Amino acid sequence: MRNRYLDLLRFLAIVRVVVYHVTGWATLTLVFPAMSVMFALAGSLMAASLHRWGPGAVVRRLRRLLPSLWVLAAVFVPAMLLTGLPLSPKVLLWLFPIADPPANGWGAIALSVIWYLRDYLWFVLASPVALWLFRRAPVPTLVAPYALLAAAELGLLPALPVALHQFGLYFGAWLLGFAHQAGMLRRLTNRVLVPVVLTLAAVGAAWVVTHPGPRGYDLNDNPLGNALWSAAFVLVLLGRGPASTSWVDRSAAFGRVVTVFNRRALTVYLWHMPFVVALTPLVDVVGWSHQDPLGLAIRVVLVFALVAAVTALVGWVEDVAARRPLELVPGRARPAPAAVRAGAHGRAGAPATGHPVAAGTVDGPATGRASVPAPRAAREPETVEISAG
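Below the sequence we write its predicted structure tokens.
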């Protein structure tokens, strides 16, 4: 069954990403480092998939990731070819982006978020070996990406390839997801967790303050500060997350919004940036300042509205990739299978008691509360976690 706390974190991260790309507010990266949070969630789910499916989980993850990218490419690659993008074999990278696929001037901006899929792809491919190492030497494996990044940022590895630099920046968060899935973060005592979090946060904040980037204190301009500050953030979120978030579904409307964003996370991520770029000229046409709160609010609403429209048109591709029933708007309540109803009633035909069956989770540590796993057929399929910014 789904872990609604992780769903909530993913929803908040996606919303934060879109708002950040519209407003450019650097403070948002400090208040909620969405990128590392999303990589940590993805790492947790990847570890669970590897535990369940073995190396075959890599193929399953790629099957979930690539179709939505191909839909985007089917629209934008021909448009870029007609507006000056040279036709070359590198265009095939839009099918399997192990490196940045080519783009022309406007496409490089509108499709700039593709770099995340490149990193995600490499992390998925590396996960079987990384998990093998993590299970045998968790602390050295976890520290390795941060040490690599520190060496690069301090000038000890000045010619570090981009791919390895990205491993240093974000793979540590991915490995924290491994630790979350294994239950290691929740088992950490406060005597260990609190000093580690405070140290990471202090060093990360000091590095950000003393090394401001072109946008000020924006974590996206400061790799080492980003990695350290985000690690502290992830340790708190996943190490001391609530045992239950049943309140998410107390409001049917809010619960469904969270579900929609999770089921359509990849579509929202891929398509929001082109709309952000397309709406930017409104600032000059209408006369809004980039700091005008009303103008920014209107642009945020318009971007979400346009993303909602395109999600209704092509979001079903995520259902196809996940091999689940197609839904225009995900999250519609379905009748419980007979086996679940019978278990909830105590015996077939007995009156309902009004107490739902507690469900265990497959992508997070045990909460210590008694639970009854749902039947295999009733379990929801996995989701691909994505974000940027």
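Residues 5 and 241 are 8 Å apart (CA to CA).
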